[in-house]
Amino acid sequence: MKFMDENFLLRTETAKKLYHSYASEMPIIDYHCHINPQEIYEDRKFDNITQIWLGGDHYKWRLIRSNGVCEDEITGNSDDYTKFMHFARMLPKAIGNPMYHWTHLELKKYFGYEGVLNESTAKEVWDLCNAKLASDDMTVRNIILKSNVKMIGTTDDPIDSLEWHKKLRDEGKFPVAVLPSYRPDKAVNIEKAGFTDYIAKLSAASEIEIKSAEDVKAALTKRLDYFCSLGCRATDHGLDYVIYEEASDSEVEAIFTRAMAGEKISQLDADKYKTAIMLHLGREYAKRGIVMQLHYGAQRNTNGAMFDRLGPDTGFDCISVRDCGAAITAFLNALQRDGLLPKTILYSLNPHDNELLGTIIGAFQGPEIAGKIQHGSAWWFNDTKTGMEAQLKSLANLSVLGNFVGMLTDSRSFLSYTRHEYFRRILCNLIGEWVENGEYPADDKQLEEIVRGICYNNAAKYFDVK
Question: Residue 232 in contact with residue 179, Cβ under 8 Å?
C-alpha cells in the first residue's frame, strides 16, 4: 500500500466512497482555535516554513525536545533553518504519532510535496516551501480560502479590544467569518497570581468600577455584549477541573474582598467564587444563544523551571486525573433548573472520561436544537487516530453520533486545517467498517446526511453560521 495516498486511512470501499463523495468537499467551521486575527487582517506572508510551522506550535516543540535538542535551538535565538532541521531529524522517529501524518498532509496540500520529510530531504523541502510561501497565493487569507474555511472562532480575553475583528468586519472584503470567542478564565481564577491586576484591567475595559463580585459579573456581562456585537458565537473556559461549590452571595463577596486585599484564598473558597461566576456566565450565554465550551482535565505548567523561562502554553502540560462527574452534573443541573442551560460542549483531556461525558450529555438534552449538549471532539493529547476513534465510538455507543458537531483545530498554525481532513478520513473509515460489517445499512442517502452533518452541517446550525 502506498504511503498516504488518496485512500489514506480508508480501508473499505464504503469508507472511500463516503470520504471522496461526501466528506472531502465539505467546508470547514473552525469553531475553536488560537490563531491571531491581526495576522488575518494584515494578510501576513511568512518568510519561511519555520515561521508558519514552528513559531508557536508546542506539539512540535515537545517532540523535538524528546529528541534531545537544547531549548535555544527549539524556541530560542537559533536561526530558523537550524530549528527546521531539528524537526526534520526528529520526524522519522515519530512513527505512530499524529504529527507525522499532519506534517505530510500539510506538505502535500499546501506545497504539493509528495515525498517524505527527513534529514536528507530537509533542504529540498525547505527550499520548496519557502518558494511557495513567497508567492501571493500563500498569504494567510489565501491559505484560509484554499482550505475552504467558512468560519473561524478565535480565542479572546474579555478585556481584548477586538480591534482586528472590528477591522475585518468594517473592511468587508474577506468572505470568511472571523469571530471572537469569549475566554474569561482570568476573571474566574481568583486564587491565581495576577488576579487583582487583571480585575483592574477588566474594570478599565468595561468602564465599570469593580468593588464587588457583583461588579465583576456586571463587567463580564458588558464585555460579553461587546463580543456579541462583533458576532461572537461561542465562549470557552479552560478549567483545571470542573467545580461546583454552592455559597451565599455574602460568602462570595467576602471571598472577593479578601482576594482583592491580597489575602491568600483557600481552594474551597476559590471554588465557591468560581461557581458563582460560572453560573452567572452560563445564564448570560443562554440568554444570548451562544455556545458554552468547557475544556477541563489539564495539569498545567508542570515543569517549573521551564515555565519560569518560557511561560505558559509552551509544551509542559499533561493530563490530570480527577473525578469531575458530580460537579459537571450539578453545574448543568443548576442552570437547567433556571431554564438557562446554554448549548454546551464538554471536553475532557482525560480519555477515561469519554463514557462519563457520553452519559452526562444524554441527561441534559433539550428541544432547542438536536445535540444541544455535546461531547466535544478528541482534544489536545487525544487528537490522535486512536483518540478520535475512541471518542467517536464512545459517543456512538452512548448518544447520537449523527448530531455531533465534529472537528476543530485548536491550533496556532494556519496550516492546521488538514486536521479536519485527518478527522474526516478516520470518521469515514469507522462508519465504512460498520456498514461493511453489516452493522448499519448501505443507505447512501442516510450515510450522506450523517457524514456531511458531522463534517460541516451540524456545526453550521449549532453555531448559527449562514
Answer: yes
Please state, in angstroms and rounded to a whole number, the distance separating the CA atoms of residues 249 and 276: 8
Q: Tell me the residue length of the chain.
A: 466
pLDDT digits (tens, 9 = 90+) for 352-394: 999 999 999 999 999 999 999 999 999 999 999 999 999 999 9
Place of cell 522519522: 92
Tell me the average pLDDT across 37-53.
Answer: 97
3-state secondary structure of 344: strand
pTM above 0.85, yes or no: yes
Of 403, 402, 394, nearest to 359 (Cα)? 394
Nearest in space to 26 (alpha carbons), one of 407, 444, 416: 407
pLDDT tier, 56 (very low <50, low <70, confident <90, very high otherwise): confident
Distances (CA, A) of 145 to 74, 214, 289: 30, 43, 28
With CA atoms as reference, report the closest residue to 225 among 279, 167, 189, 180.
180
30: three-class secondary structure by DSSP? strand
Is the pLDDT reported for residue 245 higher than 90? yes
Cα 444 to Cα 49, 210, 450, distances in angstroms: 41, 58, 10
**What was the pLDDT predicted at 115?**
97
- What burial class does residue 328 get, using C-beta atoms within 10 Å of its C-beta: 0-12 exposed, 13-18 middle, 19+ buried? buried
Query: 10 Å Cβ neighbour count for 385?
Result: 18
Question: What is the rounded CA–CA span in Å between residue 451 and residue 466?
Answer: 19
Residue 257, Cβ neighbours under 10 Å: how many? Answer: 13
Copy the grid coordinates of residue 464.
448559527
